Each structure stands twice: as C-alpha cells, then as structure tokens.
TrEMBL record:
EC number: 2.3.1.179
Name this protein carries in UniProt: 3-oxoacyl-[acyl-carrier-protein] synthase 2
Keyword vocabulary terms for this entry: Acyltransferase, Fatty acid biosynthesis, Fatty acid metabolism, Lipid biosynthesis, Lipid metabolism, Transferase
Gene this chain is encoded by: fabF
Enzyme class: transferase
Amino acid sequence: MKRVVVTGLGIVCPIGNNLEECWENVIAGKSGIGKLTMFEPPENCVTIAGEVKNFDPTKYMNEKEAKRNQRFVQLAVAASKMALANANLEINATNHHQIGVSIGVGIGALGYLEDQSFIARTKGIKRVSPFTIPGFIGNMAAGVVSSETGAKGPNICAATACSSGAHSIGDAMMYIQSGRAKAMICGGAESALSLIAYAGFGQMKALCSNRSDEPEKASRPFDRDRSGFIMGEGSGILILEDYEYAKARGANIICEIAGFGASGDAYHFTSPAPEGEGGARAMQQALDTSGLKPEDIDYINAHGTSTELNDLCESQAIKTVFREQAYKLNVSSTKSMTGHLLGAAGGIEAVFSVMAIKTGIIPPTINLENPGEHCDLNYTPLKAVKKEVNAVLSNSFGFGGTNVSLAFKKFKN
C-alpha cells in the first residue's frame, strides 16, 4: 500500500475562523457555544448553538459566487483554501487531474430547502429559486471546492450522517493508496442550524434544552449531568498526499494517516449497538489497517456527543478494544467546546487529532465535573495536557449505525 501523509490543515468552526485561532482556543478550553442567532427560535425550541462568528465568505470566493452558494459550501471553500495554503500545494495544469476532492456533508442546506418549500406552498412554485436543488444538495461542497481550486481528480461526497467527514477522509486515503489520485482535499462541512433541524432533533430529545442561561456549559460529554448535544456548524479539511508525491515536491509533512476503520451496527436507526459493538469494530479495524497496537495509541478524540447512550457506548467500546490500556491513554471530546458539527464533525476532529500529534498537546473535555455512570476513563477533564503524542484515533459515529475510526501517527522516514 502507498503511504499517505497529511500536509495541510484548514478549519472554520465555532471557536475560530482559522487554524491558529481554533487550536489556541481548543487547548485553552474555550467554548464556542452561545445564543442561537440564525433564526428566531419559537416557543419550546432550544435557543443555543455553536455558530461560526464573523465569517466573511468573500475572503475566499468572489461576491457573486458567495451569494449563489449556501453557507455550508462557503465554509467548505474557506477551509479548503486555507488547507491548500497550509500545505503550500498549488493546483495547476500540470497536476490538476491528480488532485481530488472528498468532502462529506450530513444534511446540506436544510434551512434553504425549508425556505423554498415555504415559498412554494405560500406563493406558488413559480416563485421558487432555480438554484433550489443545486443549492441544498450535499455534494455541492465538493463540487464548488473543485471549481474554486481547479482540482479535477475524483470528486465525491460521503453522506453518512455524523460520520460523513470521517468517511470522506478515509475514502480519500484509499483513493491515494490505490493510485487514483496523488493528493486529496478532504474532510467535512455542515451548516444546518435551521428551524426544522432544531424541531426534529428536539422532538427526539437529542438536544440539550436546560442550560439556555449558561450556553458555554451546555455541552458536557461524559458528565453525569449531560442532557443532549448542541448543534454546531463549520468545516474541517485535510490535505492528504501520496508520500512519494509529497516528498518529491518538498512538502512539509505534518503526520501520516495510517489506518481507516468502518463498520455498521445493523441494530437501530438512531441508537448505537449495545456496548458500542460497532464502534469497537471500527477502532479495531483502524488499528489493524495501520499496523498499530493498542499500546501505541496515546490519545483518542472521541465522538463524545454529550448524549447518554453515545458516551456510555463509546466508553464501553474503547474498553473492549484497549482493555487495561483504555485507562492509560487520554480521551477527550472537543465537542464540549464546538458543539456537534454533524457531517463536519469528523473533519474538524481530525484536524484537532493531527494538531495533537504536531504540538504534543491533548485538548480537554470541558464541563466534565462529575463523570457519568460507567464513564470512568481518562477524558482529559477541564484542562489540556502536554504529552508526547505518537498516535491518535479519531472516532465518528452516526445515525443509521455507521461508525468510522481514523488512525494518525507521527511521520517517520
């Protein structure tokens, strides 16, 4: 198999609009959760969110294209262009056919579809925008990133709920390993902070609804008092390259992506399989495909949604795979600060995982004051930890029983 390395990172999320700002805030334990401003929430609606603040899409695309495209696409373009700059990778006529795009989106522009549906029903179908269909479908993030950057290689979008971003990174890795691409722009993007999303998740009792007066404390993964997740938005993008290609162009290699595990629960359309059986298989497969052993892993960036079942089942899955080692490694959920970015979660959490290797700093799980029942691992509570990080797993699990685990490790010649 060809070796695949990470050479660039780009991120826009509730705690920052660039890599430096996001990393500084995540290791400082700063929450990006605040009052919901995307729409005026009606009675009985959750009123907090992880919104991207002060984002100007015209810094990354011209005004006409920014107006034409929905927010999740704008975020994907911004993070992708930052990642390419970080990798010092220029796409031109000599290499454009060798560079692809793989950006996962879980939902797409749900709010835009909601608005156009309302127009159709109240004002008639002749008033519906001709951009409705291309405007809301998820693969437009990858499509527009391709046109904005000139990347003409494989162009794909995984739509696997909250595993979308992680699946897209794993898919990109395999495209490079198989020789179908030399480099891939990959990760996830999402902006689904709309009334119908809040109503739907709210009716499922999946959202935290009891901390409107202290939103920064609402996302509490693994804590006894957790009561649901907080929706967020953003995009996290990695540049993956064939090692030989990266070496030949003198790229700055950040780390190596070594393994990719994926599994299905075949159990329930929203609840995880008992004891996290599917998640455990995904983690084991990530280890097996990377050649890493349980004792090689220093840190797990957990899916850690702040919901009772996910946090419990993921903890049990980690114990299944790592056994006694489970209590020796660091685990944390950066969703405690960003909220849950749905299809973008795997992308931004992969960025944080890579940065943990690069800097030797493990981000904390904030708001973890009293661990929940059977949540007895080292979740790196409240404060970041300085520690040599040689290898990391990044977990993403989604509705439909879909599970992904990505393995990253320090690069060695």
